[in-house]
Design brief:
This protein is of the alpha/beta class and 296 residues long. The protein has helices at 19-22, 26-37, 47-55, 97-113, 121-131, 137-142, 147-152, 155-163, 167-187, 208-220, 233-246; strands at residues 12-16, 41-46, 61-66, 70-75, 81-85, 195-199, 225-226, 258-262, 265-266, 269-270, 283-284. Residues 10-187 form the ATPase BadF/BadG/BcrA/BcrD type domain.
């Protein structure tokens, strides 16, 4: 904890994994940053949003983050943010690791049951080696609070099987690519320049998912330029902190994925989170302290 001897810093920004699900009140994070770093300019963001700022070096465009889940953020470079997917494995995360893994287990189950369409012996064998007999799977997954990560652990097996020519695995990855292209395209709404990038272990350069995504995006949105990621989420947090230091009035919040506090007050300009990925200009908010429950 700070003893008051630490030199104050001009600004601080953090990107947090699970911000909307694990952090009950981002205001408390602002308080900690302000107290421990002795700064009056703080930003608290989700790691997917700082991934955007890192991947495009703060430029306008959209970035798709793919791991266990999938979410895309679009930014017009001034005041408008858009978000697509990131709804979790029960409602969304289409094309992400959890979705690919779930499709793999469904294909394995179909082969076990004797189905021919959408079935895979290779995936059944891989899943049994990883999780044990299929009869134990319902109990394993339905009672496991970490089932999303458990499901996503099958995604590499699908990639391996596809490389070996398993038709069902190839189809799963192609469909995943279509889903991811849809998510990225959704984030590239009106007002967002046609510049995009991807980040995450499943969409590294030349990965099967990247190939499928690129193919589908080029068909759906040929005007979009898909570029390699130029930086990490940490680079994005540094970019956000520098902007907050140099031009705090230019940083628009996007609750709950980005909240900004300057001199004890929240940013003047904010994109309302309840409008999600709709085409809206950032609201002009008065610079007054928000009640604590506003950000919960």
């Amino acid at each position: 904890m700070s003893d008051g001897s630490t030199a104050p810093v001009a600004s601080a920004a953090v990107g947090i994994t699970g911000l909307t699900s694990l952090v009950s009140n981002p205001l408390e994070v602002h308080d900690i940053l302000a107290r421990e770093l002795r700064t009056n300019r703080t930003a608290v963001a989700g790691d997917a949003l700082t991934a955007h700022l890192g991947a495009l070096r703060g430029r306008a465009g959209a970035v798709l983050s793919v791991g266990t889940g999938a979410v895309a953020f679009g930014y017009d470079g001034v005041s408008r943010w858009r978000r697509a997917d990131g709804w979790g494995h029960l409602l969304g995360d289409l094309g992400a690791g959890v979705w690919v893994g779930g499709e793999a287990l469904r294909a394995a189950g179909r082969y076990h049951d004797g189905a021919t369409r959408g079935a895979s012996k290779v995936l059944l064998e891989a899943a049994v080696a990883k999780f044990g007999l299929i009869e134990s799977w319902p109990n394993q997954f339905y009672k496991n609070e970490q089932r999303a990560k458990q499901l996503a652990s099958m995604a590499p097996e699908v990639i391996i099987a596809a490389a070996q020519g398993d038709e069902t695995s190839i189809n799963i990855l192609e469909q995943a690519g279509r889903h991811l292209a849809d998510t990225l395209s959704s984030a590239l709404g009106n007002g967002i320049p046609p510049l995009a990038s991807t980040t995450g272990r499943l969409v590294q350069e030349e990965s099967p998912l990247t190939v499928a995504l690129t193919k589908q995006l080029s068909e759906d949105r040929p005007e979009v330029s898909l570029v390699p990621s130029a930086g990490s989420p940490l680079d994005g947090a540094l970019h956000l902190a520098r902007r907050l230091r140099d031009a705090p009035q230019s940083v628009a919040g996007f609750r709950p994925w980005l909240t900004v506090r300057v001199d004890g007050h929240h940013t003047l300009r904010e994109t309302p989170a309840d409008l999600g990925a709709s085409d809206t200009l950032a609201a002009k908010l008065s610079a007054t302290e928000l009640p604590g429950d506003e950000l919960q």
